[in-house]
Automatic annotation (TrEMBL):
Organism: Lentibacillus populi
Keyword Signal attached: yes
PANTHER family the record matches: MULTIDRUG RESISTANCE PROTEIN MDTA
GO cellular component, as recorded: efflux pump complex
Domain YknX-like C-terminal permuted SH3-like: 212-278
UniProt protein name: Efflux transporter periplasmic adaptor subunit
Length: 285
């Protein structure tokens, strides 16, 4: 009887020890969970908030080809799409009239043909400059002070990015109450066409000498904002205050320094002190 009791107790103790060891093992595995994350470095500098202004493209210049006197076209030397230089012959009109190109460019809107009668009231074609595009914008009085003549701003036209230079700022509104603004953008390869939507990015506000992080690094909880800073393969939850933000970048202040590594992806399951494995590190925020 005594031996049976001792044997039973031994079995129970072994079971308890086994269960404890298993729990310790599971707890250890939980504690050693490593989360893969992506990161970027904190930058310091001026944070510029840009306003998107939309407009339409047009040829930088469009020169009508006029005939001095009505008559019949006896010879037509060009067709739509031809490139001409200043002084090239465009057409010959009955009566000995010769029409020359007033400037270099591309022939467009040619409606006349040999043998047709043309008047001196309407152009027979235009010479357009497609190597440079004009961006035509209309802005409110409140937006007008964002523009300065000869200032250059980032612009996109049909996915093509470049710099656009402000060439004209109207002081009087048009019939809609808006103020016309014009800019020019190089189109040397003529990849962009007149009539396309253009977006001009104009600086609207600047936060000077601030810390800048990707907006994706900011986590909000209960009205508080924070980031996870990577240090020695672990993260440190660091409170921050958002000063200004855009879709891709945010200006902040907090207890972190320039070039600190902050988590930009994978932070949903993190907490202060979590172990991480940086699978993709960015050099810029």
């Amino acid at each position: 009887m005594k031996r049976t009791l001792l044997a039973t107790l031994a079995v129970v103790l072994i079971g308890l020890l086994t269960a404890c060891n298993q729990d310790d093992k599971e707890n250890k595995e939980v504690k050693e969970t490593v989360t893969p994350v992506e990161t970027a470095k904190v930058k310091q500098g001026d944070f510029v908030i840009e306003k998107s202004i939309y407009g339409r493209t047009a040829p930088a210049s469009s020169t009508p080809i006029m005939v001095p006197n009505p008559g019949e076209i006896t010879a037509l030397e060009v067709e739509n799409g031809d490139t001409v230089d200043k002084g090239d012959v465009i057409a010959t009109i009955s009566g000995g009239q010769t029409i020359y190109a007033a400037k270099a460019g591309e022939i467009a809107n040619l409606t006349a043909e040999e043998g047709s009668i043309v008047s001196n009231e309407d152009p027979i074609a235009v010479i357009a400059d497609f190597a440079t595009l004009k961006i035509q914008l209309t802005v409110t009085s409140g937006e007008l002070n964002l523009f300065e003549k000869e200032a250059k701003h980032n612009a996109t036209i049909d996915g093509n990015e470049g710099k656009a230079e402000i060439t004209s700022i109207a002081k009087l509104p048009n019939d809609t109450g808006l103020y016309p603004v014009e800019a020019t953008m190089d189109n040397e390869n003529e990849e962009m066409l007149p009539g396309e939507v253009a977006t001009l990015y104009v600086p609207e506000k600047k936060v000077k000498d601030t810390l800048i992080v990707p907006t994706a690094a900011i986590t909000e909880d209960g009205g508080e904002s924070f980031v996870y800073v990577v240090k020695d393969d672990k993260v440190v939850k660091t409170d921050v205050k958002v000063k200004e933000g855009q879709s891709d970048k945010t200006a902040i202040e907090g207890e972190l320094k320039k070039d600190a590594e902050v988590v930009t992806s994978g932070q949903l399951t993190l907490e202060d002190g979590s172990k991480v494995n940086v699978v993709k590190a960015g050099n810029q925020s």
